[in-house]
Amino acid sequence: MTILIVLLCILFLIVLVSAFRVNAFIAFLIVSILAGILLGIPLNKVTASVEKGIGDILGSLVVIITVGAMLGKLVAQSGAAQRIASSMMNFCGEKYIQWGVVTTGFLIGIPLFYGIGFVLMVPLIFSIVYKYKLPVIYIGLPMLAALSVTHGFLPPHPSPSALVIQFKANMGLTLLYGLIVAIPAIIIGGPLFSRTLKAIPSKPLESFVPADMPEEELPGTFNSFFTALLPVLLLIGATVFTFSENQNPAVSSFFAFAGSPTIAMLVALFVATFSLGIFQGKKMGDIMNIYGEAIKDVAMILLIIGGSGALKQVLVDSGVSGQIALLLKDMDMQPLFLGWLIAAIIRFCVGSATVAGLTTAGIILPLMVSSNTDPNLMVLAVGAGSLMFSHVNDSGFWMFKEYFNLSMKDTFKSWAVMESIVGIVGLVGVLLLNQII
């Protein structure tokens, strides 16, 4: 009966979000309170459980997500992203321009949130298409595949960052494993798959092609690359150092401090404020306005993450998580595959990769712990599953359709299939890594 209540509550969450279009945060609150009552938590403790769940998860993530949004916004508005893109194009040449595009999408996608990256990169895609007279989907899909994979697999993006916290994984190690898994997923779902889509008719709307910033107003190439990738460099650097044999305690302490996600993001933002802001002639007030606008971009994401934490805490406090773990263990299914499968099913029903990943976390966590599954790999398995089956209930589906001026049929043939390819390749990569490490 307990398991049935949980399944019905998750189904109710899916119906609220997908069928009735209820805001995901509100839906999480409603379902969390309802689940707490039905699962026998005393009425006077239900709200305390919900509040604890929200506080626990947001306490570790607010700085990472908000500061990451500020950095991404400044990278976009300063022209650093445009400089990175143009540098990649000049380096690759027309013959290898598709690989230049996908590499650009990957590099841009690491520091930028998906929505910001999409809107920023689409004009670049269209400008390349118009300049070189190339098929639009052939050029555009690889870049967007890279953005999607970084959004689903790699910290400091919201869902993988939240999963790292919930699974008690290592942020830097997850990022390293994520890079190993992400690259083949991008290549197969992007450049290779898009070669089959050259015949899809698409005439991008010219209104989506704004004028580029003048070359003389762009920051330098090194400055643009270094600043955009600084959080990644700090996280990876600190993680690599922990594997070195000769470690001075004082130096180890420093790298542990500097390599923590909060400090890495703050250091990167501080550097960017000067390198892409003050030193480029911007006033501090204007830079702060950019940061203020960035907060608006991620406010709802933070609330959704908080809501998912509430549901997870209710499951923990009711004791049902342990029962779910026992039930799932009886299914004799590989935990990494099971985490991927649950996330994929929820993604299909709800449409949000973030909601799918975070909802799965509360269900799969007890099994992950009891089976001693690598938490870093579980983050990636759930992240890969959360990218599966994008269709009409996913905002990314409609953004792609409208920006590229496609029919529904062609959007399914291109975007929906690409998202499923990267999800499947991601799972395969995680299972292979699990055999090696």
From TrEMBL:
Keyword Amino-acid biosynthesis on entry: no
Keyword flag Transport: yes
InterPro entries, per database record: Glcn_transporter
A GO cellular-component term linked to this record: plasma membrane
Pfam families: GntP_permease (PF02447)
Subcellular location: Cell membrane
Keyword list, A-Z: Cell membrane, Membrane, Transmembrane, Transmembrane helix, Transport
Membrane topology: Multi-pass membrane protein
Molecular function GO terms recorded: gluconate transmembrane transporter activity
Chief place where the protein resides: membrane
Residues spanning the membrane: 29-46, 58-76, 96-129, 136-154, 174-193, 222-243, 255-278, 298-316, 336-365, 377-400, 412-433
Protein family membership: Belongs to the GntP permease family.
The name this protein goes by in its record: Gluconate transporter
Organism whose genome encodes this protein: Pedobacter ginsengisoli
